[in-house]
Amino acid sequence: MIAAMRRLRVRAADDDRGSATVWMIGVVICTFLMLALVLDGGVMLRARSDAYAAASAAARAGAQQLDPVAAVEGVALLDPVAAEQAALDYLAADGLTGSVTIVGDTVTVNVTSTAHLQLATALGADATKFHATASAQAIKVIP
Asked: 78 to each of 24, 82, 111, 136, how far by Cα in Å?
């Protein structure tokens, strides 16, 4: 009888063999996916924020380029050529590409930024692009 009980215990122990390995594989995969989500999600949020910041700063740089003759007369009138060049120069200094549109006294900048992902490359994603648009208006400040 004791021998039969020992055989039952041995068989019951053999049935669970390898279950911890399957469980650990699942835990490791879930942990990797969570790390990829946190790290690459942060990279994407930072790239999007940087794209909007660069677009805003380039638009402000362009909006500061006033026509010198009109400025002497107290009128806030943009020099469209200088405004476009200043905005594009600002983007180039940051290593970004974009376009500048000037309508009246408003400078609008569209920026394309690329975020290079870190862990998602193992899942097949290499980089993602963000587009940001910002506008700035040249105004006359009355003291």
From this structure: 64, 8, 21, 11
